[in-house]
Design goal:
- With 146 residues, the chain is mostly helical.
- The protein has one domain: TerB-like.
- Helices cover 76% and strands 0% of the residues.
- The longest helix has 17 residues.
Length: 146
């Protein structure tokens, strides 16, 4: 189903993603982070839907449809490094902190931090060019907002 999309992601120098593909890649990364601890909780699913609605200006039904598509993509997708590279190329640096905040929001949605989630967030932050300090500050902002 996602053969062309995945083929573009695994190229040595993939072309920048168009807006629709960037939305799908970011949503799939949110799903991957939510699933990283082995539990895909309703709170995390709801949080992903809210993030997608807000970030992309979608109505709830469209956000759910995008999440379903992202869930399917995430199961077929290559390693997280390629996802992150595609997002890094599609998202301006200034907006990447917002991506990290969205990821932390999903991690914290179920009320529990897991070592696997922390590890994945650390890797993704670094791949996006966000240092550990800025990621920690993003996490703290999310914690305060919850």
């Amino acid at each position: 189903m996602f053969a062309d999309f995945l083929k573009r992601l695994v190229q040595p120098a993939p072309a920048p993603l168009n807006d629709d593909d960037a939305r799908l890649a970011l949503t799939a990364l949110l799903v991957r982070v939510a699933r990283s601890d082995g539990h895909y909780d309703p709170e995390e699913i709801h949080r992903i839907d809210r993030i997608v609605c807000t970030r992309f200006g979608l109505v709830p039904e469209a956000a759910v449809a995008l999440r379903h598509e992202a869930e399917a993509l995430e199961t077929e997708a290559p390693d997280t490094v390629r996802f992150t590279r595609a997002i890094k190329e599609a998202v301006a640096y200034e907006d990447r902190i917002g991506v990290i905040e969205a990821l932390w929001s999903v991690v914290l949605a179920d009320g529990a931090r897991d070592a696997q989630e922390d590890s994945l967030l650390r890797m993704v932050s670094n791949l996006l060019g966000i240092n550990d300090r800025d990621s920690a500050l993003a996490r703290q902002r999310v914690e305060k907002a919850l």
